[in-house]
Amino acid sequence: MNIKKRRARRKYYNWEAEIAKGNTNKFYHSTDFEIAREKVLARDKGKCQFFLGKWNDGKHFPNKIKIVDANTVHHIIPIKERPDLALDIDNMVSLSFEAHEIIEERHRWTWRKKKKRLTEERW
């Protein structure tokens, strides 16, 4: 769907107030965020800035530099801390899903391998 059609169906919200109330899920599914997300992905040419070595949060660094397609947009300053920067594209960076999980420190649980049983017991 192109931007003009989305803007026509867009509802206007005071996102600072909505995020302060805790409606972050509503924000992330909004047309406003979708448009900002596309602008950021276009600015970064659809490539993950973390694995290119162009951006890091100061704590996490990539093991090796590689070209990976970006599918996620990350807020550098979290929107819960600064709701006024929620739609500021200078506060966003394009990341791959794996890089976003590393930066959000969820990779410890996501990438854990489960042990498989050698054979399933049947009695």
Structural commentary:
- By secondary structure, the chain is mainly alpha-helical.
- The protein has one domain (3-110).
- It has helices spanning 3-8, 15-21, 24-28, 31-43, 49-52, 97-103, 107-110, and strands at 72-75, 92-95.
- The chain has a two-stranded antiparallel sheet with strand order 1-2.
- The protein is extended, with a radius of gyration of 18 Å.
Give unreliable regions as ranges: none
Helix proportion of residues, in percent? 25-40%
N/C terminus separation: 55 Å
| Alpha-carbon Rg, integer | 18 Å
Strand order of the largest sheet: 1-2
Q: Give me the strand/helix succession.
A: HHHHHEEHH
Shape summary: extended
Total number of beta strands: 2
Based on secondary structure, the structural category is mainly alpha
Descriptors:
123 residues, 7% strand, 2 strands, mainly alpha, two-stranded antiparallel sheet, 37% helix
Task: Please summarize what this structure is.
The protein is mainly α and 123 residues long.
Draw up the topology in text.
Elements: H1 3-8, H2 15-21, H3 24-28, H4 31-43, H5 49-52, E1 72-75, E2 92-95, H6 97-103, H7 107-110
Antiparallel strand pairs: 1-2
